[in-house]
Write a structure and sequence with these properties.
By secondary structure, the chain is mainly alpha-helical. The protein folds into 2 domains: 7-36, no CATH class; 57-116. It has helices spanning 7-16, 22-36, 57-72, 78-116. Helix 1 (7-16) crosses helix 2 (22-36) and helix 3 (57-72) runs antiparallel to helix 4 (78-116). The longest helix has 39 residues, at 78-116.
Length: 120
């Protein structure tokens, strides 16, 4: 590497050097491979997991508990659990938004009523 070569260039040079020992060429091939050959992306897998209905806050809580249980037992991988949790979290936000909308409207209506009465 004193020749101004980068580490990968040095390894490729050793790999192609027909005068190098097989051990050196093997070492260079092993070390250079991750930089020369892209690792294929993992194939997505369909996850089948029996979850409770998640259409209420309690249902969301139960679904998350089931995902945690399945991950802890090795039934699903942590990355698969993360994907499922993201879906459940979107559902939780939708439930929260649907719940907060009418409550906020009622508060605003009450404030407007009080303002009309001259309340301070």
């Amino acid at each position: 590497m004193g020749d101004g070569l980068s580490p990968i260039q040095f390894m490729v040079e050793k790999l192609r050097d027909e005068t190098a020992t097989p051990e050196v060429r093997q070492w260079a091939a092993e070390k250079a491979a991750p930089y020369l050959h892209a690792k294929p992306a993992p194939e997505p897998r369909i996850v089948i997991l029996d979850l409770p209905p998640a259409d209420t806050a309690e249902g969301v809580k139960a679904a998350l508990a089931r995902i945690i249980e399945a991950t802890a037992s090795g039934e699903i991988a942590p990355a698969e659990a993360q994907s499922l949790v993201a879906i459940i979290e979107a559902q939780r936000k939708a439930i929260e938004t649907a719940d907060l909308g009418p409550r906020l409207a009622a508060i605003e209506e009450e404030l407007n009523r009080n303002k009309g009465r001259g309340a301070s």
